[in-house]
Amino acid sequence: MAHARPNPLFRNLMAKLAAIPMILTAMVVFVGGTAWTVTYSFTNSKLLPREKFVGLQQYERLWETERWMVSIENLMIYGICSMVLSLLIGFVLAALMDQKIRFENTFRTIILYPFALSFIVTGLVWQWILNPEFGIQGIVRGMGWVGFTFDPLYNAQIVIFGILIAGLWQGTGLVMVLMLAGLRGIDQEIWKAARVDGIPMWKTYLFIVIPMMRPVFITTLVIIASGIVKLYDLVVAQTSGGPGIASEVPAKYVYDYMFSGQNLGQGFAASTMMLLAVLIVVIPWAYLEFGGKKRV
Q1: Per-residue confidence (pLDDT) for residue 295, from 0 to 100
Q2: CATH: 1.10.238.10, 3.30.950.30, 3.30.470.30, 1.10.3720.10. Which one for 58-291?
């Protein structure tokens, strides 16, 4: 007589029961908090939340505010440059490390070390490095090149690129490690077959290795994108949004309106737009990783 197969619902029952508090916490704190924020973004809340609904007025005001438009423009410039350069530099460094060079562990540690620093420390370090008086500009001028100019943090036209330099310095090491892990997962027989067939190394990387590392690239892009959306610490440490409002970013806009401007409704509206930006990143990633695969 065949035994009845156990119900899949009761498999690993103790583990599922142990996960209930975590699930409830996530539902209350994250889902509940998100719903509360979105709901009050349609109100006229000032210092304290209040249920005086004003429809889309907060969003209309948000997109008519010059400061918010500047912050969106800065985020787009920083985001596109950060994604492209982080992936490019990180992959090149990983490819070099994958050549079994001497002192690999030392170089890997040095390149990854900035990631261990907080964004505030990184921002302060690069604020000093880019200071025109005693940073790079001051040092080069002291060597005799008195006409040399390099003060991105004090130039409203290029200030976002000064912040980008600090961001790349801190984050590229992590991208390198992720890419190196992906490269080390490539079967060595593929490299041997490519060499036997006489395929140049750059073609092997471009047409064979990189397509095989698709999951690594997607995961890395999601990590980079999540860091871009919440960009705040570097800006505060380096420029505090200046000169003027030239280096404003959405996260700083939210913080200032909620805690300094005493306008919770406007801050909630801005944070809801940031949430929408995160969903735009996460939903395609989730589809590519889970929904787009054919079930066998």
Answers
A1: 46
A2: 1.10.3720.10
Condensed to tens digits (0 to 9), the pLDDT of residues 207-221 reads 889 999 988 998 898
Tell me if residue 43 falls in helix, strand or coil: strand
Spatial distance between the Cα atoms of 176 and 172, rounded to a whole number of angstroms:
6
Which pLDDT tens digit goes with each residue over 188-245? Answer: 888 888 888 888 888 888 888 999 998 899 889 888 988 898 899 999 999 999 899 9
d(CA 249, CA 119): 15
287/294 Cα distance (integer angstroms): 12
130-145 b/e (C-beta count within 10 Å ≥ 16 → b):
bebeebebeeebeeee
Helix (H) or strand (E) holding 109: helix 104-112
